[in-house]
Structures are given as C-alpha cells and as structure tokens.
Design brief:
It is built from three helices and four strands, in the order E-H-E-E-H-E-H. It has about 100 residues and is of the alpha+beta class. Strand 2 and strand 3 form a beta hairpin. Helix 1 runs antiparallel to helix 2. Belongs to the UPF0045 family.
C-alpha cells in the first residue's frame, strides 16, 4: 500500500517547517520507501507498518503543537510493491513518448 499524508501543526504560527521536519524525520528513519514533496509525504509498505509510521509521525508533531491536522490518502493494492516509483515512471514514459 501507498499512503500519502500531510501533518500540519495548528496554533504555532505561520512557520511550520520545523514541525513538519519532525514528522518527515520519523518517516525517513522508518526504512520504508518514501518521498516528500511540497504538499505530502508518501510512504510504501504493509498496512500495519505504514500506519504505525504515520501514527508516530503525527505524535512527533503533536508533542510540540497544541493541535494537529492530518490529511491522508491510501492506495491499497495487496501484493503490489514498488508502486511509489512505478507509478511515476509510467507517467514519465507517456510524457516522453
């Protein structure tokens, strides 16, 4: 499965990069395939391991912010691995051809 999620601290002012970095650090230290862009962090793995990482990433922000907003989208395809890169490669192939 692939989960794309964003964690936003509320009540800490406009500069949230430091808080978001706490969440991304948890994801990167998980060892699961992941990618971060301007809007979301995507992570790939089995249901329990991915959701555990998301929970810990939220907790890292929650430890420093009075309120946290989470947006999450999941692509659940049992038996499929490598989707995090394969989906992008497929689109790039169509763009090139």
């Amino acid at each position: 499965m692939i989960v794309a999620f964003s964690v936003t601290p509320l009540g800490v002012g406009e500069e949230v990069g430091e808080y978001v970095a706490d969440a991304v650090r948890v994801v990167r230290e998980s060892g699961l395939p992941n990618r971060t862009d301007a809007m979301f962090t995507s992570i790939e793995g089995e249901w329990d391991e991915v959701m555990d990482v998301v929970k810990r990433a939220v907790a890292a922000v929650e430890a420093r912010a009075p309120r946290v907003s989470v947006v999450l989208k999941a692509d659940i395809r049992p038996g499929v691995t490598g989707g995090l890169t394969q989906k992008v490669e497929t689109v790039e192939r169509y763009l090139a051809g």
